[in-house]
Structures are given as structure tokens and as C-alpha cells.
Design goal:
InterPro entries: Na/ntran_symport, SNS_sf. The protein is mainly alpha-helical. The protein has 22 helices and four strands. The longest helix has about 45 residues.
């Protein structure tokens, strides 16, 4: 069950950051709900098709290897009972594979060759174990499929196509993973490098780290990373992503953003799923995987050269410490960033002016410029003097000042004293929905509220006009 959930996370690319990075390049009005449904359906269909092909090949190769194992065990009759049969042809003529398999199921009791079970070369053949052993790790691609391809017509042609496909799959997987890292670093302006140089630096560093997988013990390192780094940490990061969006940013705000983008209402099914079902399921799976690790020591497949077979061995203590470090390093940024932001120790945005963040917005923050919510947040963060300066400077930038207080629009004497020096922060503000309530404003602020709406409209018109949008 736990493995199935992790496999779905891998196939969908959840928790890696790649989907969020790719989505940041979409238009503001992109229907992300439709994209999610299409992507999930495509993943389902491709998974079913892949499973159909893989299990057909596994079944065929498993049956073939099972028959080979039976023939190998049958040949031991010549060693434990040399007087019964002269050669394999005579054995095959007197004992069928089905009969020998039935003897094997009962450990050759009451048979003429009961000593086979004590022979050092004997291995009990189990079809399920043979298939499971072949499907584990890299054996599926580099052993089972290559052996199956060798029986195709024109094997070299199909082998070239198959290994080219594996290379493309590896590169395609890395595109999404690296994009999540590169886009985040570029948007945060943490590293002062161009995007090509940053990509080169990250790819080169990843290549150097990946050299450990090419050593003689590389298979064991791959098994460790696959078992620990891509399971526990992935589920934990995805869980905190849901909590951050739904319970920190706010489910109502998230739903309002989606309704603005998709131009349709979000049903209760999605709200209940985001609020309760998704976080509960991920939390239960994460706790179950941790509980399983503590109740049973994790094992890996070790190769035995004497028997030419793999068998399960528990991880040594030093390897478990390395695995624990991998999980902690992957999850550490979540509590670390929360701590430094909560106690105002360090902030990425501390030295970026408000205007710079708006005018220099990235593709992932374009929606902030278009939404009314973003203007209200600017009002909250900026003081009234800054807004009045925007209005005064707006005389030379398309006439914005005529609506903010620095223009020449006719104003009645009754409200003239309010048109220049009203305080935006005195208007009633709803922290939950990030909206200003003009209906609840006192009468003396009615005119200020209308002026703010006009300023808001011209503010966005000015921004989009100068950005060429």
C-alpha cells in the first residue's frame, strides 16, 4: 500500500516542485483544474498500458526462467540417484515437469530421489519469487526486458530503440526535477547568476554526486536512495505543501484564486478533499511507513557470488545513519524556513521594495498584479505618503494623479479636504478575505473609498500599459 502511494507520487511528479515551476509559466487565466484532470487521466491510461506490457513480459520471462530452474533441479537426479536414469533425455521421458513440481511441493517425500533436497546446488523453484526477483530494482529494465528483446526479430534494432527510450525517460525526469530548483532560485534572487550558468552549475554538481552510483557498490547506493530519500521525505514535503496552502494561506483564499483563474465555482468535493482527506491520508501513510521501519529493520538485496542469487540482508547500522541523514536533509528546509520567517531572523524579501516586486514580477507571480487582492496588500504595506507620491507622479504617467489626489479633477468643497489627505489604513479591513468593505465604512470615508477604487483601476492600467500587457 505504501509503495503504491510512493509510485503515484513519482509518476505524477508530486512533491518535487517541478509541477509548480512549470505552472508558473502558464497564462493567468489558465484553467488549472482542467489541466489536473487531463494529466491524471493521461497518467492513468499510460500506467495501465505500461502495466499491460510489463506484466506480459514478466509473465513470459518468469515462466521461462521457472522452467529452466525446474530443469536444473531435475538434472540433480543424476547425482543423487545415478542408477535410476542414464541421462536427461531418459529423465524427461519418464518424469514430466508437472510431476517433478508436485514432488518438489512436498519436499520429495516418499519419492525415489528424496536426497535432492539435501544437495547444495538445489534451490526450490517458486514462480512468484522468480517474477518478484526479476521485477525488483534495475533487473526489470536491464535483465528481463533485454532478455525478452533478444528473442524479438532483429534484436539489435529493438535494443537500440529500447535503450534510447530509457535515456529519454531519464532526461525527461530530470527536466522536471531541475526546473523546480532552478525556477525557485531564479525567482528568489538568491544566486546572482544567469539562468544558463545556474543550470550548468546545478547539473554539474548533480553529475558529480551521481558518480557514487557508478562505483562497484553503486547498486546498493541506488537501493538506499530509492528506499529512503524518495519515500519518507517526499511524502512529508507534500504533506507540508498541503498544510501551507490550505491552513496557512487559507482554503478560502485558495478557492477564490482558483475561481478567478478558472472562471467557475469550486465544488465542496474539492474543498473537503483539500481540507481533510488529502492531509489525513498523507499523514497516515507517512506514520505507517515510519512505524514499519521501526518494527522491522529495512533490508536490501545482496548478491551472493557463490549461489549467483540475491538474498535479503538488513542494512548495517552505519547505512541506517546515512539513510536517516538523507531524510532529515530533504525535510529540514521546511521547519528551518518556518523558524526564520516566524521569528523574523531572515527574510528573502527583506531588501526588495514593494514597487520592485510588483513591476519586476516573475511568471509565477503575474497573477498578483492582476488580482484586486494584491492591490489591497500593497495598500496595507505602503503608507499613505507613498500612495500620494504615486498619484502626484502619475500626472506625467497617463493622468493617474487626477484620481488619486494630485490631479485637476473637480472636487466639491464638501470633500476637498478629504481628496488629498485621507488615511487608507483607517478603512475597515477583513484580514480573512483581504478585502476592504466600503459598505461598513463610516460616512466620512465614503469619498475616500470611491477615490481608492479609482486609484486602484488606474494603478493597474498604468502597470500593464508600461509592461506591454
Amino acid at each position: 500500500m505504501v509503495r503504491c502511494c510512493y509510485t503515484n507520487f513519482y509518476s505524477m511528479g508530486l512533491g518535487f516542485g517541478g509541477l509548480i515551476a512549470f505552472a508558473s509559466y502558464n497564462p493567468v487565466k489558465n484553467n488549472c483544474k482542467r489541466d489536473v484532470l487531463k494529466m491524471s487521466l493521461a497518467n492513468l491510461l499510460t500506467s495501465l498500458y505500461t502495466a499491460f506490457v510489463i506484466f506480459c513480459v514478466l509473465g513470459y520471462m518468469g515462466r521461462k526462467n521457472f522452467n529452466s530452474c525446474i530443469e536444473k533441479d531435475m538434472s540433480l537426479i543424476l547425482k543423487v540417484a545415478p542408477g535410476l536414469y542414464k541421462n536427461m533425455e531418459e529423465i524427461n521421458g519418464n518424469i514430466t515437469m508437472e510431476e517433478f513440481t508436485s514432488y518438489m511441493q512436498f519436499d520429495f517425500r516418499d519419492s525415489k530421489f528424496s536426497e535432492i533436497i539435501n544437495h547444495p546446488s538445489y534451490k526450490k523453484c517458486e514462480l512468484g519469487d522468480i517474477i518478484s526477483e526479476a521485477a525488483e530494482g534495475t533487473g526489470l529494465a536491464f535483465v528481463v526486458f533485454t532478455e525478452a528483446i533478444s528473442q524479438f526479430p532483429f534484436p539489435p534494432f529493438w535494443a537500440i530503440l529500447f535503450f534510447l527510450m530509457l535515456m529519454m525517460l531519464g532526461l525527461g525526469s530530470m527536466f522536471g526535477t531541475l526546473e523546480g530548483v532552478i525556477t525557485s532560485l531564479n525567482d528568489a534572487k538568491m544566486i546572482k547568476l544567469s539562468q544558463p550558468m545556474l543550470s550548468l552549475l546545478i547539473c554539474a554538481s548533480s553529475c558529480l554526486i551521481g558518480l557514487v552510483f557508478t562505483t562497484q557498490a553503486g547498486q546498493y547506493w541506488v537501493s538506499m536512495f530509492d528506499h529512503f530519500a524518495g519515500t519518507y521525505a517526499l511524502m512529508c514535503v507534500a504533506f507540508f505543501e498541503v498544510v501551507a496552502v490550505i491552513y496557512v494561506y487559507g482554503c478560502d483564499n485558495f478557492v477564490r484564486d482558483l475561481q478567478y483563474m478558472c472562471d467557475e465555482q469550486i465544488g465542496n468535493f474539492w474543498k473537503i478533499t483539500w481540507r481533510f482527506i488529502s492531509p489525513v491520508i498523507m499523514f497516515v501513510i507517512f506514520v505507517a511507513s515510519i512505524f514499519k521501519s521501526f518494527t522491522k529493520v529495512p533490508e536490501y538485496s545482496a548478491y551472493d557470488a557463490s549461489t549467483t542469487h540475491q538474498h535479503l540482508e538488513p542494512y548495517p547500522t552505519w547505512a541506517l545513519f546515512i539513510a536517516f541523514g538523507l531524510v532529515v536533509i530533504a525535510m529540514a528546509p521546511v521547519p528551518f524556513i518556518w523558524f526564520v520567517r516566524k521569528f523574523r531572523i531572515w527574510s528573502v524579501e527583506a531588501d526588495i521594495p514593494v514597487a520592485s516586486k510588483c513591476l519586476g514580477a516573475t511568471a509565477s507571480t503575474t497573477y498578483m498584479l492582476r488580482s484586486e487582492m494584491s492591490f489591497n496588500r500593497i495598500l496595507e504595506s505602503a503608507n499613505a505618503a507613498e500612495l500620494r507620491n504615486i498619484g502626484k507622479n502619475g500626472r506625467n504617467m497617463g493622468g493617474m494623479g487626477s484620481h488619486i489626489g494630485g490631479g485637476s479633477a473637480p472636487v466639491s468643497s464638501k470633500h476637498k479636504h478629504q481628496s488629498h489627505d485621507f488615511d487608507y489604513h483607517q478603512l475597515p479591513y477583513n484580514n480573512q478575505h483581504h478585502t476592504w468593505h466600503s459598505g461598513n465604512a463610516p460616512p466620512k470615508h465614503k469619498y475616500a473609498q470611491s477615490q481608492m477604487q479609482k486609484a486602484k483601476k488606474n494603478f493597474f492600467n498604468f502597470l500593464f500599459k508600461n509592461r506591454g500587457e
